[in-house]
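Q: What would this chain look like folded?
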Amino acid sequence: MTVHIARSQFDAGNMNRLASSQVSSRQRHELGAIRIDRIARHLVIFMPAPADLESLITAARADLPHLAPLKTVQRVMSHNPDSVMAIAQRHRFDAAAPSGEGFVACLMLNASGLAALKAGTFDAADPPVDMLAGQHERPAGIYVWAVYARRRLAGGVGLVFDRLSSPNYQGVDFYARAATPEGASLLTTLGFEPPSVAQGGLYHFARGSKREAAPPYDSHRPGGTGTSVAVARSMEDLSRVIALRAAVYMAEQACPYEEEFDGNDLSATHLIGYVGDEPAGCLRIRFFADFAKIERLAVRAEHRNTRMAFALVRAGIELARVKGYRRLYGHAQKRLVGFWSRFGFRVFEGAQELVFSDFDYVEMLMEAQPHPQAIGLGVDPYVIIRPEGRWHRAGALDRSRTRAVTRPSVDRKAAP
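A: My prediction, written as structure tokens:
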């Protein structure tokens, strides 16, 4: 079962259903950021019954001719029933007669199995039971054995990975091989590290302490590849934002300078989208008493056939939610109402129509769910003083925790 993604199974539309801040197949996307609550509205996963497993394997073999024999899959499931999860659309699912439409199969490897996998000697077509961990044993690694999930079922991959975050599997690294370009796209989208020559085509996703899960608004790392987003933190970053917006709004849309650079840039948070290390887009966020305004989205013309705009908007929404905002407001060009609707924005009752720089706009509003790690009173005060968008990482002032007070603010002689 070394071939695990069929050519026809994944396209841009399917990838959109994998995560809340979904990106193109060329962008890396952290597994930990997948919005399971959204996926679960439409899909269910369950352990397939014997007859259902047989029909799934038979259906999948048309696209994946190198699938292991049914008896092999049954033997693996007998050793660890968590190895295969069926996927079904919720509106078709009947608990009295569950029937899967797709599946994800994983091999729970023990230490010897993982060593053999890395050495290239592991037989994935006929996995030895003595190299597999049982259901109640913590595996040394999880090998993504096979994925069969057409179209909207692709979101079920995220549900299965979430299931494999239970205490027994939490922190265990994923491994996989890609036998098709679509398989490679899915793996890199989910954040798997591409294989080196020495790894023999083995993709790796580290879930332990070795890997820091970066939020979508702080995913850029110098020297990286693909699409990423970062908060503007320096005058050089602000210069990048100015250049991007001048190219899009002033050069392309003939927007007057004083309308585009309206005096709000120094009182706002800016996000910069990168392709590799090249600035490709930007977004501005301004914060008010009970809402945040998402605005000034700009993407360079040569990058508009990518998911850059989606990455920026989703990063902006996530940043606002972490800051505790649940109402997000914006002015959308009428021709782009559909685009903003994809994120949950809607033209609300009483929304006004506006004209800016000769374009027609309308007010839109999004009611977001509260963020589970929203920053508010009562959180660690060292988190609050960290750099904007870097609340997930210890900052320079965190080091002060371990230092003794050598300059007390109260005169010890005068103190009672």
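DSSP finds twelve helices and 13 strands in the chain.
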